[in-house]
# Entry
Amino acid sequence: MKYLILSDIHSNREALGSVLSFVRRKPWDKAVCLGDVVGYGANPNQAVDMLRRLRPLAAVRGNHDKVCSGLEEGELFNRIALEAAMWTRRKLTKTNSRWLRVLPQGPVEVDGRFAICHGTPIDEDAYIFGEIEALNVFRHTEYPICFFGHSHFPVIFALSPDAITTILTVAPSFRFKLREGVRYLVNPGSVGQPRDGNPLASFALFDSTSRVVTIHRIPYQIEATQEKILKAGLPRPLADRLSIGR
Ligand SMILES: [Fe+2]
# Structure
């Protein structure tokens, strides 16, 4: 089975569109989403509609999905994130807002093969930035393979019986075979707002038969996306950051 793993789309229609055009040439069977479909970007309804059309097998909610759909008020959001969330709340159709509101909290197990979550499988709003956080998650969970998002940073953490390793992806298409007997936390990166210094849209394909994860980086129309953000009256830093991937 081949899974399309999408995370942190953040209302970026152009980025998601480019990813979906790219995967038309790569056969995949089922899509999963690790949350934050909306927030920050100028096309929340289009992002939700595009994702819904994929009929994702599983999707979990992200912190922005919760605030933008009215489940939470965003007390912990910074000013810019909160402004964008309230703008998104006003723009979302009732149907799309409801679709976001009923997304489950992670972790969710997918086909008995792997788990998905937004931040961590212990706390959906917490971040895994480095090995300390990853080790803590490995210690308190038992998933052999778990995909997570939230940090917008593509990375693989591997726990073997004697060590934890970080695998950073730098190639435009990074192929990595998951070994038996090793546990993995995999972040496919962010489709709509990458923060690893690389502005290209990031996502993953996972072949559960060969156990190969491929993290792809895809160019998209960044300038058009930035113009839309500014035209919508959203805070300028949300447009600026897209061209530097921070
Ligand atoms: Fe996010």
The longest strand covers residues 201-207. Residues 160 and 182 are 5 Å apart (CA to CA). The first helix runs from residue 13 to 23.
